[in-house]
Amino acid sequence: MYLRAQADTAYVSNYHRKLSGRIWRALEGTPADENHGSGGPSEFCMSNPFPFGDMEEGDERKVIVSSVDEQVLSYVAKDVKQDPEFNVGEMEFEVEDLSAFDVDVGEPGTEGTIETATGVLVRLYEEVREEYGIDNGHGETPTYWRPEHTNEPFVNAVTSNLQAKHDEFIGEHLPGPEDTEGPLFNSYELIKSFAIPLTVTEGVEMEVVLSKWRFGYKVRDDHHRRHLNLALDTGIGGRNSLGLGFVNITEKNEVGGRRAAT
Q: Where are the domains of the chain?
């Protein structure tokens, strides 16, 4: 979506709940709205309004919405065409244009890089903390992943989360990321970790720890390709319907040597 700022305003970093609310408003009355508040995996994710930074009236920003279900995207597109007002809290926008595009990690043999455009939320529960010797003083309350916990619990949590999405949206008749040999990503480079206040429901705010990553991949086969594309469609980690865990391909070297970057 191509947005036009309707007033001078500071960029609101805690935009997540308001942006999510605008997308859910677009889905009201559609079959997709049945999943609102279900507690199951989210079938969509979205970027932050970008580029980041304070804006003046007339400035352009963009928001990308991804989904494993193309019908969800069509519902959103139909709504914002009819009602182009797209306010994200104090950031007031109007939708000026829409464009659709397919994203694919490429055929088997393709290598590339995927980066997180928004922070990834990974929660480590008691069983996982015990397995990795992480401070277990929180009982059933999850611990947010931090760099000192090492990469392995992060990798396993992201893969397990994607397996749940695979079972929900693709189906158990095909192998998910936990059912196949080989890692989801070939390399994990932590860019940074940071804490933010996150409004998870109306009037409920909590401080969460997020992380940004750069992942290297090489597509092994068609199953692996499907897993990586599912990550692009739904995001990785938790709270994807709030826009967390949104990922982009930043470099792709396709079979035959053609290189592309975004």
A: 2-97, 111-261
